[in-house]
Amino acid sequence: MDKDLQSIQEARDLIAKAKAAQQEYKHFSQEQVDKIVLAMVNAGANAAEKLAKMAVEESQIGKYEDKITKNLFATKRLWESIKNLKTVGVIGTEANGKIIKIAEPMGVIAALIPCTNPTSTAMFKAIISVKTRNAIVASPHPRAIKSIAEALEILNKAAIQAGAPEGLINCMLTPTLEGTDQLMKHKDVALILATGGSNMVKAAYSSGKPAYGVGPGNVPAFIERSANVQKAVADIIFGKTFDNGTLCSSEQAIIADKPIVDEVKKEVIKNGGYFLNSEEKLKLEKFAVPHGHLNSEIVGKSVQWIAKQAGINIPENVKALVVETKGVGRDEPLSIEKLSPILAFYVVDGWLEGCHKCIELLNLGGIGHTMAIHSSDKDIIMKFAFEKPAFRIIVNTTSALGAVGYTTALNPSLTLGPGTWGGSVISENVSAKHLMNIKHLAFETNPVNQGFAVDHIANSSEMRESFLEEIEKRLLARAGNPRVQSYLSLQKNEKTVETNKSISEEEIDKIIMSYFTKK
Questions:
Q1: Which stretches of 284-403 are assigned E, i.e. beta strand?
Q2: Are residues 222 and 358 in contact, defined by beta-carbon separation less than 8 angstroms?
């Protein structure tokens, strides 16, 4: 069988497997779900070093020690942010009990996994999918198939051991464009989580399925004259060199305010930055951005490797190549997103000129994504927040790790939405809360006819676990749905009532009314 046909069939088979598992899993209780997710988190964290090594060796992208950090971030740090999130049953009330919000899973999630952050992104997407009672089928980048498949298999085994049905977590082993296209367009896929190249993200949005996609970064970092220059430069160089610049939120250009430019340059050199002369700049442009397009071979490579390939001799202690630039666009090839330890360097006179330069860079290839400002002037910080076309304005910290929620209070995520400005439906950091449907039970608030009728369930303070447990128990028992033991029923050793008898709307009304009339 041809590889493309094999890939298409594999996608179909895995989707069918995932759907069957999700149909069982959607009945699990919150306690069961959280037990499974925590087991996945621990398994992924325990394998962080092994998976980091596999990812670097297979893809030849990034740094081993930084990929460990990413793997721990995508498991442990992620868990801390979602462990208390309710994703089963009633998750909240509004209007004094007249609106009740009920969580429902989406179904089968199709996940596109990049080679820049392979194992961390795979685990991140699997964890938020399973937390919300979904199944997942991943399509890995061809440069990182083995490491992505291993990461998902580790989580899959942990999930099954914790009680999850088999088939909940899946990974294509023969990914092709045809197979991935089938995955995205299949009738049983509910949502696409697209992280990868711009062409793949565009394909996801063109599939006819709901999708969360990310756009390019091209993050500008403005150092305003009131900033702590020493800290600002250290943060920027750290972010630019973290995992060799593979995060889409990593800084791509320094914009220095004119009165502090000499101090900024001094700190750049102190932190391992190497300013190229005009001849070296031409060599780097020719190698890194041939014919106006990024050379994909430089993505995630070390600064020493890039310099050598470009024919530039640099000291061994250099961490980043810094290129002094003036314009933005075709005449300045290195003004684009570079995903490597290469920084453009601009000088502006005042915050307003800095503002315009940031907008130019974002419009070139990072609109809606992220920018950073280093300043001690609160008014200027707020002006940047209001006026810049980016949905993450990172203040006085490294953009690379601040935007993903590592050094800030943003939702920990490896999928950063650029909003409609960047061609996406979402403008915040994608997390578990975005992977569930929310059903609304709404009672009358503006009657058109008079007469007694139940007009609310309970307000937030009255909503007791015993009430929810009793209603759930009665409805499930009479409807013949599979009974999943909850925390309370496990405590009480309650026996499950099983019947295949269907339940009518009248019986549902009686069940609910009986609760309110009980003394």
A1: 320-324, 342-348, 368-374, 390-395
A2: yes
Residue 232 falls within a domain, yes or no?
Answer: yes
Angle, CA of 284, 288 and 294, to the nearest 5°: 150
For residues 203 and 91, membership in a common domain is answered with yes
440 in any annotated domain: no
Query: Is pLDDT at 515 greater than 70 in this prediction?
Result: no
- The structure's pTM equals 0.88
Query: Token pair for residue 394?
Result: 């990172």
pLDDT digits over 200-248, tens only?
778 888 888 999 988 789 999 999 999 999 999 999 999 999 999 999 9
Closest C-alpha among 429, 419, 363 to residue 394: 429
Q: What is the pLDDT of residues 327-356, one digit of tens each?
A: 999 999 999 999 999 999 999 999 999 999
| CATH number of the CATH domain containing 72 | 3.40.605.10
Q: Would you state the pLDDT for residue 458?
A: 64
Domain boundary among 214, 237, 268: 214
40 with 140, same domain? yes
User: 22-68, pLDDT tens digit by residue?
Assistant: 999 999 999 999 999 999 999 999 999 999 999 999 999 999 999 99
How many domains does the chain contain in total? 3
Whether residue 383 is found in the same domain as residue 366: yes
Give me the sign of the Cα torsion angle 201, 205, 208, 212: positive
Task: Please determine, for residue 167, whether its predicted confidence score (pLDDT) is greater than 90.
Answer: yes
In a domain, 286, yes or no: yes
Q: CA torsion angle for 287, 288, 289, 294 (degrees, to 10)? A: 140
Task: List pLDDT tens digits, range 264-277.
Answer: 999 999 999 999 99
Residue 394: which CATH number? 3.40.309.10
Q: What is the DSSP string of 210-253?
A: -EEE-----EEEEE-TTS-HHHHHHHHHHHHHGGGG-STTSEEE
Which structural domain range is residue 296 located in?
219-409
Question: Is 248 noted as a catalytic residue in this protein?
Answer: yes
Strand-strand pairing, 99-105 and 89-94? antiparallel
Question: Do 208 and 252 sit in the same domain of this protein?
Answer: no
Judgement on whether residues 261 and 321 belong to the same structural domain of the protein: yes
Task: Write the CA distances from 421 to 143, 205, 247, 304, 334, integer angstroms.
Answer: 30, 14, 20, 36, 23
Q: Quick check: helix, strand or coil at residue 48?
A: helix
Point out the domain boundary residue: 367, 390, 409: 409
Contact by Cβ (8 Å): 340, 288: yes
- Find the catalytic residue in 115, 248, 355, 358: 248
Q: Are 98 and 456 in contact (CB under 8 A)?
A: yes
Residues 242, 182 within the same domain: no
Please report the pLDDT score of residue 500 as a whole number.
40
CA 362 to chain CA mean position, Å: 20
Tell me: pLDDT of 490 over 50: no
List Cα–Cα distances, 402 to 370, 397, 448, in angstroms.
Answer: 10, 6, 52
Q: Looking at the structure, tell me whether residues 489 and 391 fall in a common domain.
A: no
DSSP symbols for 106-117? --EEEEEE-SSS
